Amino acid sequence: MQELTDFANALADEAAIIIAQYFRQPVAVDHKTKSDPVTVADRAVEQKLRQMIEARYPDDGILGEEFGIKDTRNGRVWVLDPIDGTKSFIIGRPSFGTLISLWDGDTPLLGVIDQPITKERWIGIKGQATTFNGQVVHVRSCPDLRNARVGSTTPRYMTPSLIVELNEKVDFIAWGGDCYLYGLLAGGNLDIVIEQHLEPFDYAALVPVVHGAGGEMCDWNGRPLTLQSNGQVAAFGDSSLKEEILSMLKNI
Q: Helix-strand-coil percent breakdown of the chain, rounded to 5?
């Protein structure tokens, strides 16, 4: 695992160099859909990372947001999101991140959340404690929902009635943040993240980071996440909050 982790760090380092060249610079923006923008930086990062993976581990598969699937010959798959939070990147807000993970079948081996501008990096490795810039981090204890801080990228991921119910039952909801929210949860700053309509490259790297910090991630039915999950994701710093939140999500 150390060799693979060192390689994942090297991938993140290369991504950071490319992203820094484009951050807060005029960049052309294309739209895959009306709500899904993409920039030259997204594509340049993924191209570079794919080249590095194919040169080092030619039998490994690759699943990337911008350039699709390369089939695996050994069961291992690198899952890449070059810029998770492209809208934040476009407007110059450093709450986006590069997501890099390695899965063996349905088992996440490692995950990296890297914020290249603020130079913040969370690394989760199967069987090891999550680190933030080299220091071990842990979720916080929060057994009472009334004290819980909830995060989500957009209100579009929830119904108006769920937002009202959460606002009545939790401390507060913080909007925006994409992958950055999960790093904050792993470090004990946030207690719950609720999102949906995610693709595997949006959540694959987050799972080992959250789990290695003592938290839990699952789908809205409480099942462990795999690369075939339906995109409904919940993360908990304190697992005692899980059942009450999942019961709310059944009504969506």
A: 35, 30, 35
Q: Does domain 2-136 have CATH number 3.10.20.880?
A: no
CA dihedral 3, 184, 26, 100 (to 10 degrees): 20
Which neighbouring-strand residues pair with 217?
235
The pLDDT tens digits of the residues spanning 93-140 come to 999 999 999 999 999 999 999 999 999 999 999 999 999 999 999 999
Residues 6+ apart with CB under 8 A from 38: 29, 30, 31, 32, 66, 86
Q: Which two tokens stand for residue 220?
A: 């809205």
13-72 pLDDT, tens digit each: 999 999 999 999 888 787 776 667 788 888 999 999 999 999 999 999 999 988 888 999
Return residue ranges of the chain for CATH 3.30.540.10.
2-136
- The DSSP secondary structure of 19-54, one letter per residue, reads HHHHTTS---EEEEETTEEEEHHHHHHHHHHHHHHH
86 contacts 97 by C-beta, under 8 angstroms: no
List the structure tokens of 102.
Answer: 């390695």
